[in-house]
């Protein structure tokens, strides 16, 4: 499992630029917003957490179609399905490696982009914390779409279409927890705990559903 994690981590970084492409796309999405809404610093500060979350969500979708593509291309996908190690555990490890390579850099970059949106220290910290907790759920959800589309030509767009509606609850509670921490008097803890629960839920459901889809694909 450690070897699989390190292998997938290297592949995620190398394929298509990996974390660098995600950060550049994240940076592009967030920095073009001020040009659209104008130089109103108060407005930018108010909508900043939502914009950062939306940018991170869209950037997280970029590499999901490649989650199982390397194994499909070299024929090792059949070996993953038939090996003694449970396929669910294998998918979980691959999702974790993918998040470390592509999702964690977005969390690290979010404070800098928060400054671009004129967000204060509390908003920046709350946004980074909610992204750290909630962004893994996007990867686990995306694993299902990647497994469904792995056998299809040009399945990248299909993965985004399948995954994006399922990530809306994560986006809602991530932004809600951030605004609760900044504005009050709404408590921060309830939406934050729901966000954690969503991540844990999809950490179980996502790999199981992806493993089932991969078995059906190789049959």
TrEMBL record:
GO terms for cellular component: plasma membrane. GO terms for molecular function: heme transmembrane transporter activity. Keywords: Cell inner membrane, Cell membrane, Cytochrome c-type biogenesis, Membrane, Transmembrane, Transmembrane helix, Transport. The keyword rRNA-binding does not apply. Coiled coil: none annotated. GO terms for biological process: cytochrome c biosynthetic process; cytochrome complex assembly. It comes from the Bacteria. It is a multi-pass membrane protein. It is found in: Cell inner membrane. The chain crosses the membrane at residues 12-37, 43-64, 85-108, 128-150, 157-182, 188-214. InterPro entries: Cyt_c_biogenesis_CcmB (IPR003544), Cyt_c_CcmB_bac (IPR026031). The keyword Cell membrane applies. Required for the export of heme to the periplasm for the biogenesis of c-type cytochromes. Belongs to the CcmB/CycW/HelB family. This is Heme exporter protein B.
